[in-house]
């Protein structure tokens, strides 16, 4: 059974993943965030190897993850961008992509100690802007992320921006409406309504991964993604 951290604001998605044998750990409510973002997992935690970084405001989530190696952020989170994106980074192949000026000191120190390169990109929401199929293949609508990842040897499918619901905003992002669990990509809502649906499915299949669409009666929805966490490693 995989353990998944995700927003509890969409019970249908949570129930669908539970039905598939996954344990759901709900995120906290971060009141300083704008209402649509208050439960977003990709804004509350960042997993790098065996370490899980949490907002210092995530007291409840910290208790729920007590069996794992966790580090609370040194800085308090802010309401507006980029102060709300201190954990919204993409970790891939021992590199961390995101807005370098927004990174929390705890993460910066971890990267320095563990020889993890920090790659600055214009997109401060690098985590929610990217669907990681595997460590060689990603999907994004952001050109700066595409360029950085391609330069580092990853294969990137660039898709059209938009066509993903995020209440209160013009649109959401591909990483926020999807997630990979045990080498299977799950989409939260009806992927078939996205104009690049066929390209996305073909890209996933070409990289020897499976996919499943959850709750096709719901529009493709950015809920802050789903984060699979690993058992504690070491003492």
What does this structure look like?
The chain is of the alpha/beta class and 235 residues long. It is 18% helix and 29% strand. The strands form five sheets. A three-stranded mixed beta sheet has the order 2-1-15, with helices on one face. Helix 1 (11-19) links the parallel strand 1 and strand 2 (23-26). The chain is globular.
Give a short overview.
This protein is an alpha/beta fold. The chain is built from 5 helices and 15 strands.
Number of strands: 15
If you average the pLDDT, what whole number results?
95
CATH architect. name: 5-stranded Propeller
Q: Kindly, what is the distance between the CA atoms of the first and last residues, rounded to a whole number of angstroms?
A: 22 Å
Radius of gyration: 16 Å
Widest β-sheet, arrangement of strands = 2-1-15
- How many separate structural domains? 1
Order of helices and strands: EHEEEHEEEHEEEHEEEHEE
Count of helical stretches: 5
Beta-strand portion reads 25-35%
Categorize the overall geometry: globular
Please estimate the helix content. Answer: 10-25%
Largest sheet: 3 strands, mixed
Task: Tell me the CATH superfamily.
Answer: L-arginine/glycine Amidinotransferase, Chain A
Identify low-pLDDT runs.
none
Enter the CATH topology name: L-arginine/glycine Amidinotransferase, Chain A
């Amino acid at each position: 059974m995989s353990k998944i951290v995700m927003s509890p604001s969409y019970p249908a998605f949570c129930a669908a993943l539970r039905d598939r044998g996954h344990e759901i750990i709900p995120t906290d409510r971060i009141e300083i965030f704008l209402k649509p973002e208050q439960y977003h997992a990709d804004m509350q935690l960042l997993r790098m190897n065996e370490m899980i970084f949490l907002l210092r405001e995530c007291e409840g989530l910290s208790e729920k993850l007590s069996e794992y190696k966790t580090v609370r952020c040194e800085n308090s989170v802010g309401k507006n961008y980029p102060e709300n994106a201190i954990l919204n980074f993409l970790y891939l192949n021992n590199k961390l992509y995101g807005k370098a000026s927004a990174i929390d000191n705890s993460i910066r120190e971890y990267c320095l100690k563990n020889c993890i390169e920090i790659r600055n990109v214009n997109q401060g929401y690098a985590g929610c802007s990217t669907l990681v199929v595997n460590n060689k293949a990603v999907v994004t609508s952001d050109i700066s992320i595409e360029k950085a990842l391609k330069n580092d040897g990853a294969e990137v499918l660039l898709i059209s921006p938009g066509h993903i619901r995020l209440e209160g905003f013009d649109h959401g992002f591909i990483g926020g409406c999807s997630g990979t669990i045990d080498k299977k990509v799950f989409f939260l809502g009806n992927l078939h309504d996205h104009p690049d649906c066929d390209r996305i499915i073909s890209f996933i299949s070409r990289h020897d991964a499976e996919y499943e669409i959850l709750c096709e009666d719901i529009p493709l929805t950015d809920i802050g993604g789903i984060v699979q966490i690993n058992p504690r490693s070491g003492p």
